[in-house]
Amino acid sequence: MAVEKALTLLRARLCDPTYVHAAFKSCPQSNYSKLKLLIASSIADAYNNSALLLGPRGSGKIAVVDLVLEDLKAEHPDTISVIRLSGLLHHDDNCAHKEIARQLCLEHQLLFSKMASSDDNSQFMIDMMRECGLAHKSIVFVLDEFDLFAQGKQRLLYSLLDAMQTLTSQAVVIGVSCQLDADQLLEKRVRSRFSHRKLLFVPPSREDIKRLLEYILYLPQDSGLPSKYITEFNSRVQNILNDKKFDKILDSLLDVDGTVSNLVQFLFRAVSFINLESGLLSLDNFKNAQICNQRQPKTDSLHDVSILELYILVCMNRLERKEQDLYNFKSVMKEYKAIHDAYKTSDSYEHSVCLRAFEHLLERELISFVEYKGRNLSIEFRPVKLLISPRELYLGLKSNSSCPVQK
Known about the structure:
One of its GO terms (molecular function) is ATP binding. Belongs to the ORC4 family. Pfam families: AAA, ORC4_C. By secondary structure, this protein is an alpha/beta fold. The protein has 20 helices and seven strands.
């Protein structure tokens, strides 16, 4: 019974992004603290503001926004209205204005007209921003996939940011994007009205990861579980976190994907492998989670490729490690000759055979052409890129017993 209750508690934590990112609330340098200060000061001092949250998918941008808005709503009840838009759904200006009008009507218990034109909805948005400002209420616009709103004529962004220039309006615009140069996509008239504040979401440091693991995995004393079981469970977790073998597992995981989202998925799998009889976590649970968490499809595709195809993949990896941004089949063959001369191997293939192997890798989607570059060139001269990570290539080489050179 205690084990099932503990599992339910841990899974609930791992499935709640706001709980996961609440681990960094106490840090004054965290993005949570910076974003909360930005919005809270805008509310308290009654001025308009805008900011961009930038970082890779899974880094917790939306989770931090939700956490900040939840806390601010508790601190400032009835003074915040939140309007959420997604560039995947509302990148069209007419659709976006209509959705803003719908949410504003819902938020303020007004009658929404489905027949209103885009200009009517745009004017309604401006009027509501002015009325909310006069009533000392702030409207927080959260624009997910912000870079998609920057496409086209950018009427929504212009009308929104332009309305914020007036003294009577009171609003905050939070753009969320995976594209680090999203602000550079803005037109000059829009960029001039943007505050240019940016919060970068980077992979957490090892200290932050350790704090996050303890925050998620430790059972609280007030959970209603037997105190003896809680002490034993937390002690086991502490021993695992201090184990050097666990550090190696964590390193291999973060080498592939260092986002918080990937770490949470890994922990969820580890918790699911817990021994129901003992009710305690073990290092084997995390080893099994690592095996499940590894990206298998590309590695499996390397099992039956030829030695020549492995040569080509290794050459491409060597070129990328040399920071050669653009390379083609000719560059790969030049690197292949360098390996052949250095290791004095007996493997020597004709140009036509190498080209067929190269084309086979393209068909298997282990490599691909660089988009929009050299489309009119022949295959030998078109720029290409690897679609597998260095670690996946290493695992593929390691599993192939007939590799002719030192791995």
